[in-house]
Amino acid sequence: MRINAAIKELWTDGFFLEHRKPSVVGKKLFEKYGITCSNILMQLKSCDSFLRKESKGWIQKIHAHNSNPKEMDYFKLFNIHPEIDKVSKQLFDDKHYPQAIFEAFKRVNNLVKEKSGRSDLDGKGLMLTSFSVNNPILQMNGLSSQSDKDEQEGFMHLYAGAIMGIRNPKGHETIIQKNKDRTLKYLSFASLLCERLDECKKR
C-alpha cells in the first residue's frame, strides 16, 4: 500500500479525530501496515486535502471546512457498537439527537436485562444487581484483586448513572439537544457500555 493511501485509510478510520504528531503517525503506519517513511512530514503535507497541521499536531480537516456531514459516516469513524448503530443511526442522521441518545441507552438497559436474565428489574436496580461487587450476575473480570473489584464497582455505577442521568431524563422530559458533537459523545459512551457488556461473563 502506498503511504498516502495508508494515511487516508487512517483518516477514514478516525485516527486523526485527535491531534497526531508526525512521529505518532509514522509509528502507526509501521504497526498497522509495516510501512516505514523517511520523510513523514512531507507525506502528511501532501494529504492537505483532508488533513491540516496545528500546533498540537495533524488533525482531520472536515470540521475546518464545514464539509457536508452526509459525506462522513461518523458511526464508522467512532466505531459505534452494532447494537447502538441499529437503534440510533437513522435518528442521528435525521438529526433527531435526543431520540438517538434515548434509544441508545434504552438499548443498553435492555441488553443488560437480556444477558443477566433479570427481566423483572429495570434501570438503576437492574444495574446495581447485575454488576454487584459481592454477588455479580455479570462479572467484568476475575475479581481476584482489589483493582478488579474497583473496576467492577466503578462500572456498576457507570451503568446505573447512565440510565439515571441520561436515559431517564431523555425519556421523561422534552429535551432540546441540537449539538451533534455532544450527541456523538453520548453515543460513544453507550457504545463503550455495550462493548464492556459483551466482555462480561454471566455467573
Backbone shape: globular
Structural class of the helix and strand makeup? mainly alpha
Unreliable spans: 64-70
Tally of strands: 4
β-sheet strand percentage: 5-15%
Largest sheet: 2 strands, antiparallel
Whole-number mean pLDDT: 88
The amount of helix comes to 55-70%
Radius of gyration: 20 Å
Ends distance: 46 Å
Q: Please, how many helices?
A: 9
Strand order of the largest sheet: 1-2
The H/E string reads HHHEEHHHHEHHE
Summarize the structure.
The chain has 203 residues and is mainly alpha-helical. The protein has 9 helices and 4 strands; from the N terminus they run αααββααααβααβ.
Structure description:
This protein has about 200 residues and is mainly alpha-helical. The chain has helices at about 5-10, 20-35, 40-45, 75, 80-95, 95-115, 125-130, 145-170, 180-200, and strands at about 50-55, 55-60, 140, 200. Helix 6 (about 95-115) packs across helix 7, helix 6 crosses helix 8 and helix 7 (about 125-130) runs antiparallel to helix 8 (about 145-170). Residues about 65-70 have low confidence and may be disordered.
